[in-house]
Design brief:
The chain has helices at residues 18-28, 87-92, 121-132, 285-288, 293-329, 335-341, 358-383, 394-405, 407-420, 426-454, 463-489, 516-543, 551-578, 585-593, 595-609, 616-653, and strands at residues 50-51, 53-59, 103-104, 109-120, 136-141, 144-145, 147-155, 161-169, 171-172, 174-176, 191-193, 196-204, 214-223, 255-256, 262-275. It is α+β, with helices and mostly antiparallel strands.
């Protein structure tokens, strides 16, 4: 439901057969796939053993369109081999392939020439276009992604400036010179390619625990150097601009890719090894330091403050107002007087009257339980560490498969609510539940995928993957929804405490602040306020290509969000009933569900303040997927608020005596 990106190379669109995709899908059901789980199976290298460097997609936060590494004319092996990928990796845009880089454990390399190529004007323009779109290169060694180290200045406890190291995923393909560029020999507006990479590999050795060496960090320093051959060297394959005694420096003339009809580029690299005290089980910690945990704690405190405010209101209603009303309604002496004083008992014959569009409400509530089940189980496994970024594609695969498997709860809940509302055709409800939300998601996804395919991006989902998604939908989700609906249809309908009168009461004219649009818009603010800080980090992970692994904080925020949605819907519904307005079914759903409006508005603000997208297709991707996420958030939060309100209304009306 929350598919972030498309994936895969556009040209081999029909390379993957449905049979192969189904086999890949079944393999992805296992917790351990082609890569290890964190902390389970470390790789021990011997001295001099070959260390494989694999290349991954090129990505950009400016275009959001991934491309195959070899879509640009890099140095390429004679036979390119794709690594096995699970469904989540395909949907996330990963394309992992082999490379020409030769690395051996603890063996230092300096100024090693990977290859040299003469590029035509068209090929240079390909590099220039990607550099101007701020594309980054992604490499992988021992399942660790390449990272660029950078430092931020912070004020320490003693009041002095301190520099803290951080890591950004990947490294820049190149840069465009500006007037403020500190590097010499650059010309403003010219694009320069990073053709030299210094690989810094950190290893850990502990003879008391294991034999060999374990790689615990992978850094890359990228340089742009206009290399020159040393014609006087007898080997004839040595460089003047880079020697073991004189390594590449920032001050050297960079390699331009603009304004030339033909250019020879030398691709070179260094390999350095550094001993580290970091243990293998903790090697991902440096990637997770991209975010400050203090901000997450602030988010938790902010959310708890919202919950305490709402809890105080609910406690006041239950312990004072509602308790007083119940005493009066159930007291023979004051029963007649109480009916004149307050209004929520007066509508007991209408409070359970089925609302308009009852079928749509049942479908939304059923889908909401499907999303709630997926969210809870996903967060549970994520908190336990099974969905670490080390398990590439695991999060996406888990969410997709769990959503499908939770279809049984969707069918059960929608049919059960349908019986409460007097809807007898459970097959019709089952059909609508299994096709409504998945159909909207697949339709938008298909349109966006066609747009990405038109851009010739490797982000376009291949035909085989689309078939696999359809098999998940029609082959698993639809039958499971039907099974859940069938089980629910065999159960007796829940007994309501009040019977519905034949003729409805007239609803008094409502004051402006008690009307549905105002209450829904005001009510949606608090659930969004309880989680908007965590939403910022999630959006940064999705759209700014950062790692997110604060699942412990996210689980706490999800619990707080659940409580907030329940309480705000109960409070709003209680005051609505006091004004003798018995149309609470949809309003209880929308009061908490309208937090999705603020989520979408926040995404618009995020687009204009954080993103620098200037491509139509990229903007369509952003708003298309944020619309789907907002729709899912509306259904999830609305279902939580509706369910809590339904139990509240049933409880209070079962506590009064009716003559």
């Amino acid at each position: 439901a929350i598919l972030k990106k498309h994936t895969r190379h556009a040209s081999p669109l029909f390379n993957r057969t449905p049979k192969k995709m189904l086999i890949s899908l079944l393999l992805s059901l296992t917790i351990v796939d082609a890569f290890y789980l964190p902390g389970v199976s470390p790789r021990n290298y011997e001295y001099g053993e070959n260390v494989t460097l694999k290349v991954n997609k090129l990505d950009s936060v400016r275009t959001q369109l991934p491309y195959d590494y070899y879509s640009l004319p890099f140095c390429k092996p004679s036979h390119v081999v794709e690594s096995a990928e699970n469904l989540g990796e395909v949907l996330s845009g990963d394309m992992i392939e082999n490379s020409l880089y030769k690395i051996n454990m603890k063996m230092i390399e300096s100024c090693k020439i990977l290859c040299s190529k003469k590029y035509s004007k068209h090929e240079l323009q390909q590099f220039e276009s990607k550099i101007r779109d701020e594309y980054h290169v992604n490499w992988i060694i021992d399942n660790l992604p390449a990272a660029t180290k950078y430092y931020t200045e912070e004020i320490g406890e003693n009041g002095e400036s301190e520099y803290e190291a951080h890591y950004a995923k990947g490294f820049a393909l190149g840069f465009v010179a500006t007037e403020e560029d500190p590097q010499d020999d650059t010309e403003t507006g010219i694009a320069y390619i990073n053709n030299h990479a210094r690989l810094i590999l950190h290893y850990h050795q502990d003879l008391a625990s294991f034999l060999g060496y374990r790689i615990v960090a992978f850094e890359v320093e990228a340089f742009s150097v206009k290399h020159e051959l040393d014609r006087d060297h007898p080997d004839g394959n040595k460089l003047k601009t880079c020697t073991p005694l004189s390594p590449v420096r920032r001050s050297q003339a960079p390699q331009p890719v603009s304004g030339s009809d033909e250019e020879e580029i030398f691709w070179t690299y260094d390999v350095q090894w550094e001993s580290s005290n970091i243990k293998w089980a903790s090697r991902w910690d440096v990637y997770f330091k991209m975010t400050d945990s203090k901000v997450h704690w602030f988010s938790i405190i902010n959310s708890i403050a919202v919950v305490l405010f709402l809890s105080a209101m609910v406690a006041m209603i239950v312990t004072r107002t509602l308790h007083r009303d119940l005493l009066r309604y159930n007291s023979p002496e004051e029963r007649e007087e109480a009916q004149e004083e307050t209004g929520w008992k007066l509508i007991h014959g209408d409070v359970f009257r089925p609302p308009v569009f009852s079928h749509a409400l049942c479908v939304l509530v059923g889908t909401g339980y499907q999303l709630i089940g997926m969210s809870i189980i996903t967060l549970f496994f994520a908190v336990l560490g099974f969905l670490s970024p080390a398990n590439r594609g695991g999060l996406m695969t888990s969410m997709l498969l769990l959503f499908v498997l939770m279809g049984i709860f969707a069918g059960f809940a929608s049919t059960l609510l349908g019986k409460v509302l007097g809807l007898d055709d459970w097959r019709k409800l089952s059909f609508a539940t299994s096709f409504a939300f998945p159909g909207v998601c697949f339709g938008i996804f298909f349109i966006l995928n066609a747009m990405v395919w038109g851009e010739k991006s490797s982000g376009a989902v291949p035909f085989g993957t689309l078939i696999a998604l359809l098999v998940l939908w029609f082959g698993m989700n639809v039958p499971l929804v039907y099974i859940g609906a069938y089980i629910s249809s065999k159960r007796p309908a829940p007994e309501l405490p009040m019977k519905v009168k034949k003729f409805p009461n007239e609803i008094p004219e409502q004051v402006w602040y008690a009307q549905a649009p105002f209450l829904a818009l005001i009510g949606g603010i608090l659930p969004f306020a309880a989680c908007f800080i965590e939403i910022f980090f999630i959006m940064s992970s999705v759209w700014m290509h950062q790692f997110y692994y604060m699942f412990g904080f996210l689980f706490i925020v999800f619990v707080i969000l659940t409580i907030t949605c329940a309480e705000i819907s109960i409070v709003a519904t209680y005051f609505q009933l006091c004004y003798e307005d018995y149309h609470w079914w949809w309003r209880s759903f929308c009061t908490s569900g309208f937090s999705a409006i603020y989520l979408f508005l926040y995404s618009v603000m995020y687009y204009y303040t954080k993103m620098r997208i200037d491509h139509f297709v990229s903007s369509a991707l952003y708003f298309g997927y944020m619309s789907l996420i907002s729709l899912g958030f509306f259904i999830l939060t609305g279902t939580i608020g509706f369910s809590a309100t339904y139990l509240f209304v049933v409880k209070i009306y079962s506590s009064i005596k009716i003559d």
